[in-house]
Amino acid sequence: MVEHNFHQQSHSFVKLVIFLCLLFLSANISVEARIRHYEWEVKYEYKSPDCFKKLSISINGKTPGPTIVAQQGDTIVVEVKNSLLTENLAIHWHGIRQIGTPWADGTEGVTQCPIVPGDTFVYKFVVDRAGTYLYHAHYGMQRQAGLQGMIRVSLPDGVLEPFSYDHDKSILLTDWYHKSTYEQATGLASLDFSWVGEPQSILIHGRGRFNCSIPSIDPTLCNATNPQCTPYSMTVVSGKTYRLRIGSLTALSALSFEIEGHNMTVVEADGHYVEPFVVQNLFIYSGETYSVLIKADQDPTRNYWASTKVVSRNSTTPNGLGIFNYYPNHPRRYPPTVPPSGPRWDDVAPRMAQSVAIKSHKDFIHAPPLTSDRVIVMLNTQNMVNGYVRWSVNNVSFNMPHTPYLIALKYNLLHAFDQTPPPDNYDHKNYDIFNIAPNVNATTSNSIYRLKFNTTVDIILQNANTKNPNNSETHPWHLHGHDFWVMGYGNGKFNQSIDPKNYNFVNPIMKNTIPVHPYGWTALRFRADNPGVWAFHCHIESHFFMGMGVVFEEGIEKVGKLPTSIMGCGESKRFHRP
C-alpha cells in the first residue's frame, strides 16, 4: 500500500515537473515572439504640414502614421477601420516578405479586395527580419495623401549589430501636393492629359514650409505661423553617435538628404547590413530605407540644417529644411548659415556611384545563385494607348483586374484576367533607347508572369527616352514578397552576352527597392520561393497608376486557405462571408 502511494506521488511529481517545464518554455516563447496589437482609424482630416491647409489621410489623427516598433519574430496585428466615408482602402507593409501570409501584403487588386468605407479589416503577419521598413496606402493614389509610416524591427535580445550607436531615431521623407489625389488621377486618366507637376513641398517627417506670401495664395488657407508646419527638429547631444533610419515615400521625387557639416556612414539598406561607407549627402529613392550613423562632433553652440533636395528632375520644389539641434540650444533656433544648396539635379554620376558603392557587409553576405533559370528584360517606356498617355513594360501597359489575382488563381478563375503571358524581352537590337520611339503606341493587359516555384529569376530593368526629347527619368522599382540581389548597374543599353560577365557575385547587397538610372540599366536576381502573387512596379505613384508595373505568380498551389476577409469584389463576391 505504501509502495503504491509512493508510485502515485512520484507520478504526480513527474507530471508537475513536466507541466512547469512546459509553462516555462511557453513563457520563454511568449517573451521571444510577442504579438503587437494596433487599432487604427483611417480618415480624412484637414492638416497643414507645409502651412497650407488641405485634406490629408490620417491614422488615429496623425500623418505620417504611428511608427510600428517590433522585434524580429514578432506577430503584428493591425485592425484598420476605414473611416474615409467615400473611399476604399488597402495598406501595404513595404519590405515585409509575408512568408506564409500572402493575403496580408495589402495590395488591392493583387492580394485582396479593398476595405470598403465603414469596414474594419485585420492585417496579421510576422516580421521575420530586423531592419527598417515602411507602410503605406496601396489603393489608387492614396499614398500621396498622407497614409504612410515606418516600421522599425530590432534584433532578438542578445544579438549584436555590426556597428554601435547611442541613440536610434527615424525620419520619413515625402513630397507634398496641394491638389487632391482625385484631381491628379483624373488629369492622368483623361484624353486631355494633365500631368501632376512638381510637388509644392518636401516634408521631413511630415513637416515642411510653403511660401504663404505668394500673391495668388489664399491667406485663409496658408498660415506661416501654424504650429503644424514648425520645422522638424532632431535634438542631439555633443559627442554622441546617432543611428538615423531614413525612409522615402515620395510620390514623385528622387531626393538628396544631408546634414550640414556632418558626414554620414551608411550601414543598412532595406533591412540588410551594408559594408560601411561615408557620404556627405545620401541619395534616396521612393520606397528605399537606409540607416546612417551620424556623430554629433561639430560646434555645439549652434544648430545645423538638415536639407532635402529633389534630384533627377529639374524641379521647382524648394528644398525641405529641418534643424539638427545641439542640446541645450533651442530646438527651433535657426542655424546662422545659409542652408546647403545640395548637388546638381542633373548630375547622374554621383547617384550611380552611390548605387554601385552599396555592398553587403563582409560578415553578412548572402551568396546569390551563380546562374538563373529565366531572364526577363523590362524596357521602361512612356507610350500612348488609344490616345491616353501611359507607362509600359516591353510595350505593354498594366491594368489591374476586378478580381484580385491571389483569389482568381487559388480558385482557378482564370477567365478573370488575360492568360496571354507578357513578353520576356523587347527588340533590343533595333530599339534606340536614346531617342523618342518612332511608334510610341502600346497595348494594355492585365496578364501576369507565371514563375516556376523555387527557380532563380533575373530581371533587367532597361531605361530609355520618354516621349520628350533628351529626357530619361529615374524609376525606383519595388518588389513585393522578396528581397533580391543587386547584380549590377550600367549606362546605355544592356548587352545580354557581355554585361552578365561583370555581375557582382562576391558581395551584392540585397534590397526590395532599386533605381534604374536615366539611359541606364539595373540587373537584379531573386528566388521565386515565396508562394503567392506579388506586384513589381515603379514606386512613383503616378507612373504605377499609368501602367508601369507587372505581377509575378509563384507556387500558388502551396498557398494555404485564403481568409474570406480579403474577398467581396469582382468574382470573389460569392466566396465572401461578411
- Kindly report how far apart the N and C termini lie: 62 Å
> How many domains?
2
Radius of gyration based on Cα positions: 25 Å
Inertia-based shape: globular
Beta-strand residue fraction: 25-35%
Q: From the structure provided, what is the oligomeric state, counting identical versus distinct chains?
A: single chain
If you average the pLDDT, what whole number results?
94
Helicity level: 10-25%
CATH topology of the largest domain: Immunoglobulin-like
Q: SS-based structural class?
A: mainly beta
Please give the count of helices: 5
Strand order of the largest sheet: 10-9-12-17-14-15
Q: Would you identify the regions where 5 or more consecutive residues have pLDDT less than 50?
A: 1-31
At the first level of CATH, what is the class of the largest domain? Mainly Beta
Written description of the protein model:
It is globular, with a radius of gyration of 25 Å. The strands form 7 sheets. The protein has a 6-stranded mixed β-sheet, with no helix packed on it. It has helices at 2-32, 181-188, 348-357, 405-410, 541-545; strands at 35-47, 54-59, 68-71, 75-82, 91-94, 120-126, 131-137, 148-154, 167-176, 201-204, 233-236, 241-248, 254-259, 264-269, 272-279, 281-284, 289-295, 304-311, 320-326, 374-385, 388-393, 396-398, 443-445, 449-451, 456-462, 475-479, 484-491, 510-511, 513-516, 520-527, 532-538, 549-554. The chain has 5 helices and 32 strands. The chain has 2 domains: 37-357, Cupredoxins -  blue copper proteins (Immunoglobulin-like), CATH 2.60.40; 374-567, Immunoglobulin-like (Sandwich). Residues 1-31 have low confidence and may be disordered. It has 578 residues and is mostly beta strands.
